[in-house]
Amino acid sequence: MNVEEAIRTRRSIGKVKDEPVPRELLERMLEAAVWAPNHHQTEPWKFVVMTGEGRKTLGRAYAEIASGHSPNLSEQERAELHKREEAKANRAPVVIASSARQARLRG
């Protein structure tokens, strides 16, 4: 499969298996990810792999952010919102977050 085909045929899947992902597979995926092209070969990215309690922490953060965007909810609505948002982080056995440093311009 070429890159264009991979991009055009990619689909998000809402339901995933709850089986643990082998560490060796995660390491292979992350190793492949760091080979992505980048400006001046700076490799500006970081990856955070979350499982177990890490996903719970992420779920609580999702809920807090959502609550901040919805200040006029009743207690029941807020509880339902928290439950939905916290569940998002637990849909898969592993969550990988990526971030990148912004390069400073010299001038």
Share in helix: 40-55%
Strand arrangement in the largest pleated sheet? 1-2
- Largest sheet, if any? 2 strands, antiparallel
Net shape: extended
As residue ranges, the low-confidence spans are none
Structural class: mainly alpha
Question: Whole-number average pLDDT?
Answer: 86
The number of helices is 4
β-strand percent reads: 5-15%
**H/E order of the elements?**
HHEHHE
Q: What is the β-strand count?
A: 2
Rg over C-alpha atoms, rounded to the nearest angstrom: 18 Å
- Gap between N and C termini, in Å? 42 Å
Question: What are the main properties of this structure?
Answer:
extended; 11% strand; 107 residues; 46% helix; 2 strands; mainly alpha; two-stranded antiparallel ribbon
Could you give the topology of this structure?
Elements: H1 3-9, H2 23-33, E1 45-50, H3 52-68, H4 75-88, E2 95-100
Antiparallel strand pairs: 1-2
Please describe what this structure looks like:
- The chain has 107 residues and is mainly alpha-helical.
- 46% of the residues lie in helices and 11% in strands.
- It contains four helices and two strands, in the order ααβααβ.
- It has helices at 3-9, 23-33, 52-68, 75-88, and strands at 45-50, 95-100.
- It has a two-stranded antiparallel ribbon with strand order 1-2.
- Helix 3 (52-68) crosses helix 4.
- The longest helix is centred in the middle third of the chain and has 17 residues, at 52-68.
- The mean pLDDT is 86.
